[in-house]
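call fold(seq) -> tokens
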Amino acid sequence: MKKVIATTKAPAAIGPYNQAIQVGNMLFASGQLGLDPATGNFPEGGVKEQTIQSFQNVKAILEEAGFSINDVVKTTVFLADMADFAAMNEIYASQFEGDFPARSAVAVKTLPKNALVEVEVIAVKA
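ret:
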């Protein structure tokens, strides 16, 4: 049985999807842009600041479902420009404790709202 996860501590979905879906002990979170949920705007700065906010949004969704960042087993990072990989990766590395999850990182032509980064996760409760 699937359960819709929604929190006001992360930006609302901007299309026909949910922030996350929980199925049993698994959580599938939609990609999170670096939008501040209070203002709907990107933070000042560049990819580092947007990556920080993306992870804050991811963590809010995980928390709403009773998960934590340590439950994440797979991430996908979408970048508007692969030249931003090192800056994103610096922030990414600081978000996890212990073992890192599996990850894919890809450059895409354009992200919604012209974001610089989007982070999506799959989490599993052991």
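The mean pLDDT is 97.
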